[in-house]
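WARN retry 2 of 3 for item q-0093 after timeout on previous attempt; input resubmitted unchanged.
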Amino acid sequence: MWHKTFAGMLSGLIVMILVPSIISLIFPQLVGLILALGLVFALSAWAGVMTWCYGANTNKQAWLRAAKAAILTIIIFIGVFLTATGPTV
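OK item q-0093 returned
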């Protein structure tokens, strides 16, 4: 059970931090509104990832689910970051 907890907690925190960051990079004019709404949506996303990991039958399946959620979010963040901000030369 602890493996499922740590898997969901770690990947959920990654999702919880990066989702509002992605949205604020896309809409930089509305940072205050996005951070307020992002907190609500990020907590919901974190709870969803935790539930998804707890629903796994094995510890390995929980970690694979956690990795899928975290890696997908990280890839989207990197893509949006490089697109929205652009390289500084």
